Amino acid sequence: MTLPDPAAIRAAVERRGDEILEWTKEFIRFPSENRPPGGAEKGAQEFVRDACEKEGWDTSTFTPDEAEGIRDHPSWLEGRDYGGGRKNVVAVWKGSDGRNGRSILFSGHTDVAPYEPDGWKECRPFEPVLKGNRLYGRGSCDMKGGIAASFWGLKILAELGWRPAGDIIFETVVDEEFAGGNGTLASRLKGYNADLAVLTEPTRMEVCPACLGAFLGDLVIMGKGGMPYMGSAIPNPIDGAARAIELFSAWEKEWRSENNHPLFEGADKKLNVVLWHVDSTTEGEFTQMGTPLLTKISWITWCYPGMTEKRFFRSFGRFWDKHAAEDEVLKQFELKIVRTYHYVKAWESDSGSPAVKEVTEAFRHITGTRPSVGGAAFSCDLAIYGDAGGMPSVILGPRGDNLHAPDEWVLTDDILDLTGIYALLAASWCG
Which of 24, 200, 332, 401 has the least CB density, counted as fewest CB within 10 Å? Predict the structure, then answer.
């Protein structure tokens, strides 16, 4: 079928601009928080399902654990609860030549990070507010703005009278946050794969065929515990934790010096370490007024594509073994590295592939500018699309800020531009 004129797509997006943003605001109003082991995606997913059915697309829903063989897959994350209506939504716009036409998948997750810490000032988390060209609200950027753009891009294509030769798959998955991935994995194992996957995560309008990976764990500083009633000093593992926190900065510097990748150049794409929780109790333990038995530091370390768990933990373990033996504070304690969650694998698709070229061309035709191509400076489910799904996979999404923080926002101009970009990409790829 004849490729729609980019000017016609831009004009259609402009006509429907207010409606697109109102739809996005309605989407954000669903408090689809992920609070492991459970989540509250049900309302948002039903909203998406109803919208897809209204378009006449073949729509199905299923919980992640309904995918055959998923619990035996190496990417499966145990311990999640899929009661309460936590179902993926997959809609297929069937092509007229499904056997020979190229297919495309647009994918995003509807679960959002919890609204805490509650320092929200521009709006309440699930009461979105539009101020200038910023749309505030939890999930506005991560990642309901991108999902809205991909849905409306396909809707506008249909309204322009265009029909695909190859299948177009639109999906929203559950349970991506907190190193999840089970929702994404379920769709891949259910067979909802295509010749190209486009994730609408917020890449700041950069075309990203690669993303970072993430290792998550605890550093446990073990002591003796108790009270020094008889005058003998008891080394306090909280003091050990204070010293370890200082040394994490040294680890970050060492880790950065050992690693580099051509798609991740620039100060904003350096490998970071985040310490996100410190605790001095074990689960269910009553807290005594005294020296604790242990202190636990929860950490995240990011990595570039090509890194393996074996290589990382060898380097990480060597660093802490050295300091446990030589540091005057840490040598008083036993240090343990405990792996938590699972490795969120880094991934890289071929940046010179036809898929990346078509994405950049669609971007250029709609915006008049050529996008940069690089690596996404965050971890996500990209490896599941590429590995379990066997698809060339690209991330492209809007600009914004305060993701996982108070006053999250997304640029409305980007939502509208992406609506046009996704529409033209679907038409050029599946025409």
Answer: 401
